[in-house]
Amino acid sequence: MKRAVVLLSGGLDSSTAAAIARDRGYDLYALTFDYGQRHRREIEAAMNVGRALGVRDHVVISFDLRKWGGSALTDDIDVPTGRDVTEMAADIPVTYVPARNTIFLSFALGYAETIGADTIFIGANQVDYSGYPDCREEYLRAFETMANLATRAGVEGTIRFKTEAPLIDMTKAEIIKAGTALGLDYGLTWSCYQGGERPCGACDSCRLRSAAFKAAGVRDPVWH
Predict the structure, then answer these.
(1) How far is CA 71 from CA 74, 79, 190, in A?
(2) How far apart are CA 41 and CA 200, in angstroms?
(3) Which pLDDT score is estimated for 128?
(4) Strand partners, 26
(5) Residue 33 bridge partners (DSSP)
(6) Could you give the CA distance from residue 123 to residue 22 in angstroms, rounded to a whole number?
(7) 129, pLDDT greater than 60
(8) pLDDT tens-digit profile of 25-79?
(9) For 139, which of 131, 146, 164, 181 is 20 to 30 Å away at the CA?
(10) 70: burial class by Cβ within 10 Å (0-12, 13-18, 19+)?
(11) Rg (Cα) of the chain, in Å, rounded?
(12) Are 199 and 159 in contact (CB under 8 A)?
């Protein structure tokens, strides 16, 4: 089978991207990161999603971005709550983690070259609110170019690396419909930035998730 490395955080987007990769016939090699984030509940969710999707291997990599912080997810900064979409879209949010996707994709690239995988799947989305500069199409294409310039396999031409972001131009409601059609159990996923045992329902991620399920006409199993 074709091999792909999938970045699997346990959230709605990354889980859907992984389900799409499986549906496209890829053998999945999952990467999850324990980087000091406050919402560590997502790591458990990622492992559960990986098992449900039948990943071939699932690697959890640990490092500590709290060493320099700079984000509400890795520092003593309050997570915004109760905001509407207009407020969320006003600027890059404090939940942005500096260079996070570049760090994650670099690990994925090393893993992919080692196992002979030519494709890296990431659940990046630039439509319904995102606000993160490292979720844009132009960024992902730039990383792809770099991947083929910076690796032995790329330079020797044995692998042509691709970064696949199947959700990049989908609304959140479309993402949920796509995952549901593929049989993905969203009850296994985790979106809340607060990292408790139950979703807070008030952070940006919880509010966007709630609105997306409502727009898709699908019941969110996390709340039932």
Answers:
(1) 5, 9, 19
(2) 13
(3) 63
(4) 2
(5) 61
(6) 14
(7) no
(8) 999 999 999 999 988 899 999 999 999 999 999 999 999 999 999 999 999 999 9
(9) 181
(10) middle
(11) 17
(12) no
Rounded to whole angstroms, how far apart are CA atoms 19 and 153?
27
Say which residue the tokens 């346990």 belong to: 10
Residue 201: C-alpha distances to residues 72, 73, 191, 208 (Å): 17, 17, 10, 10
Query: Which residues, at least 6 apart from 62, have a Cβ–Cβ distance to it below 8 Å?
Result: 33, 34, 35
- CATH number of the domain bearing residue 117: 3.40.50.620
Given a contact cutoff of 8 angstroms between Cβ atoms, the answer to whether 31 and 111 are in contact is yes
Name 17's Cβ contacts closer than 8 Å, sequence gap at least 6: 6, 7, 121, 122, 123, 164, 165, 166, 167
Q: What is the pTM of this model?
A: 0.95
- Terminal-to-terminal C-alpha distance of the chain: 37
Q: Does an H or E element contain 27, and which?
A: strand 26-34
Residues across the chain? 224
Tokens 């509940």 -> residue: 41
Q: Which residue range is the domain that position 38 belongs to? A: 2-223
DSSP 196: S
Q: Determine the Cα–Cα distance for residues 70 and 95; give it in Å rounded to an integer.
A: 9
More confident residue, 126 or 185: 185
Mean pLDDT over the full length of the chain = 94
Q: Could you give the angle at the alpha carbon of 49 between the alpha carbons of 165 and 124, nearest 5°?
A: 20
Task: Indicate the number of domains in the chain.
Answer: 1
CA distance 198 to 206: 11
Token pair recorded at residue 169 = 């131009």
183: three-class secondary structure by DSSP: coil
